[in-house]
Amino acid sequence: MELFVQQVLAGLAVGGIYASLALALVMIYQATELVNFAQGEMAMFSTYIAWQLVQSGIPFWAAFFLTIIISFAGGILIERLIIRPARNAPVLAIVIIFIGLLVILNSLAGWIWTYTNQIFPSPFPDRPYLGVNIQELGAIGVTLVVLLLVFAFFRYTTLGLAMRAAAQNPTSSRLVGIRVGWMLALGWGLAAAIGAVAGIMVAPKLQLDPNIMGSVLLYAFAGALVGGISSPGGAVLGGFAVGVIENLVGTYVPVVGSQLKLAVALVLIIGVLTVRPAGIFGRSVVHRV
Amino acid sequence: MTNAPVTGAEARTIAGPGKPAMSPARLAGIALAVAVALGLPFVVSDFHSFQLTQAIIYAIALLGLNMLTGYNGQISLGHGAFYAIGAYTAAILIDKAGVPYYATLPVAGILCFVVGFLFGLPALRLEGLYLALATLALALVVPQLLRFRPLEGLTDGVQGISLDKPEAPFGLPLTPDQWLYFFALLVAAIMFWAGHNMLKGRIGRAMIAIRDHHISAETMGINTALVKSTTFGVSALYTGVAGALSAVVVAFVAPDSFELFLSISLLVGMVIGGLASVSGAIYGGLFVQFVPNVAEEISKAAPWAIYGVILILFMYFMPAGIAGFVRQVQGRLRTAPTRSSADG
Fold it and tell me: Cβ(A200)–Cβ(A53) under 8 Å?
């Protein structure tokens, strides 16, 4: 039973990271119906920036907030400079641009910071408290705070409302004076900032290297789809669920072990999707014929 | 991702099955291309022949992917899996059962057709992103299965299977690399001919109709479920044959060659070459094979950053891929003389 609780908590800790990244994906998806495949690499790059800041002697939490601000600005810049010029291109062409962005960020990080693993500091002590790892509790806590802040922002502020309006009905929003293009850029900035938090929380556990986010992004994508990519809350729950499933399958099904963990988790997810194609909390989209 | 815009060429295909007469210029162009393709291995080094062979193999795989995604509108991020299955089928048959290399291609093709068809059945319920995820999972699972310990007797696990490069038959005065080039070229010619006929015919029109509007397609009496899953099968067949060819040409298979990166490269090659275009597969094959080398020439330190920049620039200036760009240029050339004669 103790093992079970430990594994569930460990699952929730990584699940929180998947949930954050899933939320970042949903944010861009809702406004553009596109999945940003470079989201993981953007988070990885932010994490390296945080690492660099900590290395140069800045205290952890100062580096944390500084990185979030830098990532926010970086996200807006990427939208303005790279994505916006191609906004009228066919869907798959934009997907290729995302892939281009992904390999650029990955390669640049390898070039600047090399491909060797770096130890990333954690603000929380890595020791058990009442049988529960504090580092994991800390990661869950930070993730929950971020998710609550994002929820409050979209629910209770005018800017959040304007962003939701721009995503839902760009034409009408434009008519009431919302600058739709800038709302989209802000969405990219927010997504990048949330990704940065996810990266900083996962890095102490996995050790930092340029390929750290590859599988994290896949799980986040899977989580977003299982929860329903049209529902931010669903995507967050989906992310947590994927983390827990992944950990439990790896622990309790011996044939699977750590090698086939990813494969089994994905197969389970696709099983869910064939039964509920729009995700558990998603609305199924009805097309007018 | 399901509703790609209809380009001019497809509109013509939908409009009428009547065969347009081939213009002399087009015939001359084709003759020139054939002459170049046949002459190249005698001009360039063995290593370059080998690289060209790989480009041909990628072109076959890309044609398969294009049938599914370009013509039928079903996105796949996991065609590397079928490539891997094809390659391992060939390698295992040659290494463990002593089957001659040329006989492994049909076996690999049929096996991939069956796997693709069966995968296509549950995939009928998935569209767009969900299908992307399902195929992505396939691409991730297959290399892990190839490494899986209980299967090591068959796949030789992480170390992979080494093969011997086949010599040229009938005492032909060719090096193995030259011979494999011609062998791959022959296979590609047959498969492109068959694929072209299928895509321009009744089945191809049904595939395009489903992509553009599946309800209308159904109303017109197309069995959408059957056509979609068969397309999945045929697409996997093409990619599987390409994989088998690659195993023969490279003479080595290992799980590391079939990671997600391969599937992404195939997707990139298809879009850069041109969606829903048979010739686009050839451009895409050349792109996938040679552009990473070009990027490495430009910058040894961060070649993939250069590659990414190239990808983005291509999509800015040729959003419809190289084939779309060529079509546009041809259209301009065709209208230009008419305009000048009208002026004169």
Answer: no
The structure tokens listed for B69 are 């995604």
d(CA B295, CA A121): 35
Mean pLDDT of B215-225: 86
B161: phi then psi, degrees, rounded to nearest 5: -115, 130
| Backbone φ and ψ of B75, nearest 5° | -80, 140
Domain count, chain B: 1
Instruction: Give the Cα separation of A10 and A37 in Å (integer).
Output: 26
Residue of A nearest to B121 (CA): A274
> Is the pTM higher than 0.90?
no
Q: Find chain A residues with C-beta within 8 A of B125's C-beta.
A: 273-274, 277
Segment B84-136, tens digit of pLDDT: 999 999 988 888 888 888 888 999 999 999 999 988 887 777 777 778 878 88
| pLDDT of the residue at B343 | 46
Which carries the bigger pLDDT value, residue A7 or residue B64? B64
The CB-side HSE value for A81 (13 A sphere, CA atoms) comes to 9
Q: Which domain holds residue B95?
A: 40-343
- Asked whether B319 and B275 are in contact (CB, 8 A), the reply is no
Taking the C-alpha atoms of residue A71 and residue A42, their distance in angstroms, rounded to an integer, is: 8
Q: pLDDT (tens digit, 9 = 90+) per residue, B67-82?
A: 998 888 888 888 999 9
Q: Would residue B6 count as lying in a domain? A: no
Considering only CA atoms, which of B89, B81, B66 is closest in space to residue B234?
B66
- The CATH number given to whatever domain includes residue B187 is 1.10.3470
Half-sphere exposure (Cβ direction) of B14: Cα atoms closer than 13 Å: 16
Neighbours of A119 (CB within 10 A): 10
* Average pLDDT of the segment spanning B206-233: 87
Binding-site residues on chain A for chain B (CB distance < 8 A):
35, 82, 85-86, 89-97, 99-104, 106-108, 110-111, 214, 218, 221-222, 225, 229, 259-260, 262-263, 266-267, 269-270, 273-274, 277, 289
Residue B235: closest CA among B85, B28, B92, B10: B85
Mutate which of A104, A113, A286 to test chain B, going by most B C-beta atoms within 10 A? A104
* A contacts of B122 (beta carbons < 8 Å): 270, 274
Is 70 exceeded by the pLDDT of residue B7?
no
- Domain ranges for chain A: 2-212
pLDDT of residue A259: 62
The rounded distance, in Å, linking the Cα atoms of B114 and A94 is 32
Residues 6+ apart with CB under 8 A from A133: A6, A9, A10, A13, A126, A127
The pLDDT tens digits for B253-274 are 888 888 888 888 898 899 888 8
Complex ipTM:
0.79
Residue with structure tokens 């070009």? B294
- Give the one of B133, B302, B319 whose C-beta lies nearest to A221's C-beta: B133
State how far the Cα of A26 lies from the Cα of A22, in Å rounded to an integer: 6
- The conformation of residue B150, written as its DSSP 8-state character, comes to G
B254 domain residue, yes or no: yes
Measured in angstroms, the CA of B211 and the nearest CA of chain A are apart by: 14
For residue B8, is it within any domain? no
Q: How far apart are alpha carbons A64 and A58 in whole angstroms?
A: 10
pLDDT in tens, A98-125: 988 988 998 888 888 888 888 888 777 7
Nearest-5° angle of CA A67, CA A195, CA B134?
Answer: 160
In this structure, is residue B207 part of a structural domain?
Answer: yes
Helix (H, G, I), strand (E, B) or coil at A257: coil
Mean pLDDT of B17-41: 75
